[in-house]
Design brief:
The protein is 39% helix and 15% strand. It is an alpha/beta fold and 482 residues long.
Length: 482
């Protein structure tokens, strides 16, 4: 079972290499990645090996720049916080320090996580290490790009719609979002509180399990967190057994016959997915086809937009330039706030906040925001029905590889809109969800996604690991085996 973390630790234990040498080599690779991909807001040149002796002792990693780090610049990739240095640590960052991990830098995201392209951060566009003319995906763009380049064994991200799992697919790595509340969000800049999850990006399922074992758990500072002390992800991967291996896919998303005039890329992506289903059967999975109301499926993107934008409008209302952040030059408080937000926010985030304000207006709440909540409820109810019969949903992550940086970044082909957006179902229901690589389409990596019922993370990762071993995909990028 592949694990770069365990391999590095074994070499350090045998004194084949020291933790200081690992750190020094990592910082060199981080700078190489920065020159190529622009993955970092801040590189921590003075990062030091700590001797806490935890399960991640000596392992370097990168942290998305929307996690609070005391004394370290934390911008959310926004000009509104370009000089903000927090006075407290996020729980995730604190737990990683306790586990012995070494943060080597803070990674670029779409501004405050409100995007899926990796192009709206205030420090510039993140480029895909596979092809610098392509997106890395978003919003955890920098985290995905630096792991895919081989610079660090893992990175931390956040996932509100698919912001860990889609970049992972585009960059050819693993992206895992645990059950809602398994990892504390204290110190994570909130985007949409009912949808936000902490996630991890790695190059193997085992490494994802090891990292989440280190950072999960009940936190008094986050009322949505729960006690997961009985869940042992890495141990279950090594020693656990699956009593049932029933997968299902949704025909309207995964069947090529559901698409009018499909592109060659889409045909190739869905053909590869069918091959993956056959491989799943070869390792003992039962695979079933299910249908879902097309009207309900078509409502997924707009439902997500209404809910996420409304919650973002509320969560980001404190960014006024009065409490913190660069102040406007006007003497009138109202004008100062207007100037701060007008100059500080990117066009994308302005659009999202305008949508959020609109759907929350008293006269519009029933038609938009409350109806979106009802549709979310219908989708979750349907998924819960499926999970009574099956162990996991399996679907392709996208209609193909990473999208070009040139052109309309936020415009999607209507025919593949549901395929590109279905992973938000994992956020609607708080379900654990993981993306693993399953090959190349037109020379670019694509992923397959598994989602299961809440708190079934251990069995989900076991299923993902079985598929990972069967597909046995090893990418070569920048001279490093991924």
């Amino acid at each position: 079972m592949r694990s770069e973390i365990l391999s590095l630790q074994e070499k350090m234990k045998k004194k084949e290499i020291t933790a200081q040498e690992v750190l020094k080599s990592t910082l060199v690779s981080v700078h190489e990645n920065q020159e190529k991909c622009n993955s970092f807001v801040t590189i921590l040149e003075d990062a030091k090996v700590n001797e806490n002796g935890g399960i991640l002792q000596g392992i370097p990693y990168a942290l998305k720049d929307n996690f609070s780090t005391r004394g370290i610049l934390t911008t959310g990739s926004s000009n509104t916080l370009k000089n903000y240095v927090p006075v407290y640590d996020a729980t995730v960052y604190e737990k990683l320090k306790q586990a012995g991990a070494i943060c080597v830098g803070k990674t670029v995201l779409d501004e405050f996580g409100l995007g899926g392209t990796g192009t709206t951060g205030h420090t510039g566009v993140v480029k895909n290490p596979w092809d610098e003319s392509r997106q890395a995906g978003g919003s955890s763009a920098g985290s995905a790009a630096v792991v895919a380049s081989g610079a660090v064994p893992f990175a931390i991200g956040s996932d509100t719609g698919d912001s860990v799992r889609k970049p992972a697919a585009y960059c050819g790595i693993v992206g895992y979002k645990p059950t809602y509340g398994m990892i504390s969000r204290y110190g994570l800049f909130p985007f949409a509180s009912s949808l936000d999850h902490v996630g991890v990006l790695t190059r193997s399922v085992m490494d994802a399990a090891i990292v989440v074992d280190a950072i999960k758990g009940l936190d008094d500072k986050d009322m949505t967190s729960f006690d997961s002390s009985s869940i042992h992800l890495a141990e279950n991967l090594q020693n656990g057994k699956l009593d049932s291996k029933k997968l299902f896919y949704i025909k309207e998303i995964a069947d090529i016959s559901s698409y009018e005039n499909p592109s060659e890329e889409l045909k190739d992506a869905l053909s590869l997915f069918q091959k993956t289903l056959e491989q799943a059967k070869e390792v003992g999975f039962e695979v079933y086809e299910e249908s879902m109301d097309e009207t309900l499926l078509a409502a997924i993107p707009s439902t997500y937009t209404c809910i996420s934008c409304a919650e973002a409008t509320s969560n980001l209302s404190n960014l006024t330039g009065i409490i913190f952040g660069p102040r406007g030059e006007s003497r009138n408080i109202t004008d100062m706030m207007v100037e701060h937000r007008t100059k500080g926010f990117s066009p994308l985030i302005k659009r999202r906040l305008i949508i959020g304000s609109y759907v929350l207006q008293k006269e519009n709440q029933e038609k938009y925001f409350l109806n979106a909540q009802r549709v979310r409820h219908l989708i979750v109810d349907k998924m819960n029905d499926f999970f009574e019969k099956y162990d996991a949903l399996i679907l392709p992550c996208s209609s193909g590889g990473a999208k070009p940086l040139e052109g309309e970044l936020e415009v999607l082909n209507k025919s593949s809109m549901i395929l590109e957006n279905h992973m938000v179902i994992g956020n609607f229901g708080g379900y654990p969800s993981i993306t693993i690589p399953n090959g190349l389409v037109n020379g670019l990596p694509v992923g397959v996604n598994l989602t299961s019922k809440i708190k079934s993370d251990a069995s989900l990762l076991k299923m993902a690991s079985l598929l990972e071993e069967k597909m046995d995909i090893h990418y070569e990028l920048g001279g490093k085996s991924l």
